[in-house]
Hints:
By secondary structure, this protein is mainly α. The protein has helices at residues 15-24, 29-41, 55-74.
Amino acid sequence: MDISAMKPDFEQMSKAELRAYIVSHPNEKEAFEKFVDRFKANPEDRGWHPYPQTPEDLAKVQQLIQQRIEQSHSN
């Protein structure tokens, strides 16, 4: 049996699918490289916020985290 026929097509996977594959196959170097390539290709699609740059930014982040914790405890 041809081993390459069993390998997933990383090009056809969404970022979420590729990420899930990497999590479940941490030693799969080719999948990781494809994920990094996609991540670099579209830096605006990162899904995170910049690191707080000022004390005011940091205070706002801490406030938002506290609000989220309180919301999760009230549910």
